[in-house]
Amino acid sequence: MPRQVLEDTLTADSIAADTALAASGDGSAFERLYRTHVARVHTLVRRMLDADEADDVTQDVFIRAWQKLSTFRGESAFGTWLHRLAVNVVLARRKSVGVERGRFLSEDAPIDGMSGKPVTPELSMDFEEALARLPEGARQVFVLHDVEGYRHEEIARMLGVVPGTSKSQLHHARMALRRHLDR
Amino acid sequence: MNDIWMNRLSEYLDGELDSTERAALDAHLATCGVCFATLGELKRVVARAQALEDSQPDKDLWPRIRARLTPEHGSAGVGGARQAATTARRRFTFSVPQLLAASVALVLMSGGAVGIAMHQQPSNTPAPAAARLHERGMVAAASWTGTTDAAIADLQATLTQNESRLDTTTVRIVRQNLAIIDRAIAEARIALQKDPGNAYLNLHLADTMRRKVELLRRVNDIAAQS
Predict the structure, then answer these.
(1) Among A99, A138, B90, B150, which residue's beta carbon has the most beta carbons within 10 A?
(2) Helix A54-68 to helix A78-97 angle, to the nearest 10 degrees?
(3) Measured between CA atoms, how close is B71 to chain A, in angstroms?
(4) pLDDT in tens, A117-138
């Protein structure tokens, strides 16, 4: 067996074993799952919400995962299941926080003053920073579509908007971010 | 920016325009340098998004998560007997064939639980072992341990080749630990012969084999770096 294939197989098997053990109540196995997946979950949450909420929401995601492990059917990889759970927790948080922040932009609205003038190299901000400064709705659509690979129909369902809104928000986000590409 | 096609560039990029619109935008791009350049930038944005990397939180969140794990779902470091009881209560909805791969501490902790499990009466249900496991979404160890045995053999062959790179103390400790794990595996297999449908024993065997694989991998990594 080629070494890399063996390594990949063993890693996947190790996660599957820990998932089973965690579902049976093994906290140590659940900690190993946390260590394996926390970076991905925390990064997703940080990008979807404000950075200062990321730690609390990430904790909520893992608590929910622990509580719901018995419903994990193994039809997808644990990481995929956890990721979807994280998205759901983020969206629930978004609802609970409320809509006061002007989540979605009108078709013609500029984004956060970012798209107006050219940015000189010395003034250009990091791409992640620029992403964080997008309005919430555009940011969430961009993260879900371009970073996480969801389709507009799925995003529209999750966010409770029509696919056309998801598409226009994505375009607004891309247009704003193009000025903050690494130079 | 007032170009009507400018607002359709993302849909064009994502292949979401119908053939008529696509052909019209293709024709426009051939004559509009601004849209053509913008399309190139949008492609770079998408590529940049796909290349973004994950990063760890600034602080370890595990202690606070662990503190919030409710007792009814177990707690970190739960011992074998407690875990066996919990296992019996919870419904498994994943397949054990993937349950492979392995630190010696839990083997030592849970090895005694095999004895407990062996001395428990096998399930009184008349259903065969496979059916009992299937109810829990599990597959009997007999059908999956072969692939793990092959992986372990592969790793042990590598260790044999690399053993000379390790100091004698390390080799001794590794051999002692492997012997402990092998004993645990043997005990679990014997117990499973008596009660193939025992969910705890199947999980215990899977976890013990996983720990053996993990130990071998770790030692091989150390040897490779020596």
Answers:
(1) A138
(2) 130
(3) 9
(4) 344 443 445 889 899 999 989 9
What φ, ψ does residue B18 adopt, rounded to 5°? -75, 170
Residue A91 belongs to domain spanning:
3-97
Domain span holding position B88? 79-225
Do B219 and B110 fall into the same domain?
A: yes
pTM exceeds cut of 0.90: no
DSSP element (H, E) containing B223: helix B199-225
Q: What CATH number is attached to the domain comprising A174?
A: 1.10.10.10
Nearest to A127 among B10, B48, B86 (CB): B48
Q: Is B160 on the interface with A (CB under 8 A)?
A: no
Contact B68 A59 (CB under 8 A): yes
Query: Residue for token digits 């609205």?
Result: A109
Taking the CA of residue A100 and the nearest CA in chain B, the distance in Å comes to 27
Q: What is the sign, positive or negative, of the torsion defined by CA atoms of A9, A69, B137, B72? A: positive
Distance set, CA A99 to CA A58, A103, A161, B159 (Å): 21, 6, 13, 59
pLDDT digits (tens, 9 = 90+) for B8-53: 999 999 999 999 999 999 999 999 999 999 999 999 999 999 999 9
Interface ipTM: 0.79
Look at B93 and A74 and tell me if their CB atoms are within 8 Å: yes
Q: What pLDDT is recorded for position A114? A: 47
B44 with B84, same domain? no
B57 domain-assigned = no
Q: Inter-chain contact A146–B50, Cβ cutoff 8 Å?
A: yes
Per the domain annotation, does A18 fall within a domain? yes
B104-151 pLDDT per residue, tens = 434 444 444 455 454 544 444 445 555 555 554 455 555 556 666 777
Task: Express each pLDDT in B55-69 by its tens digit.
Answer: 999 999 999 999 988
- Name the residue among A127, A87, A132 with its Cα closest to residue A111: A132
